[in-house]
């Protein structure tokens, strides 16, 4: 079931999934910037 879910996610990525991925990446970048500034 997990493999089918991943496969469908790759073939047809939903806008919400893509948005959540970008949000996670943005949070990681912000955290890195905060650590670098400290």
Task: Please name the defining characteristics of this protein.
38 residues, 2 helices, 0% strand
Coarse shape:
rod-shaped
Order of helices and strands: HH
Distance between the termini: 44 Å
Would you identify the regions where 5 or more consecutive residues have pLDDT less than 50? Answer: none
Average pLDDT reading = 75
Residues in β-strands, percent: under 5%
Number of extended strands: 0
Helix proportion range: over 70%
Cα-atom radius of gyration: 14 Å
The biggest beta sheet reads:
none
Number of structural domains: 1
Judged by helices, strands and strand pairing, the structural class is mainly alpha
Number of helices: 2
Report on this structure.
This protein has 38 residues and is mainly alpha-helical. It has one domain (2-37). It is 87% helix and 0% strand. The protein is built from two helices and no strands. It has helices spanning 2-11, 15-37. The relative contact order is 0.09. The model has no long low-confidence stretch (mean pLDDT 75).
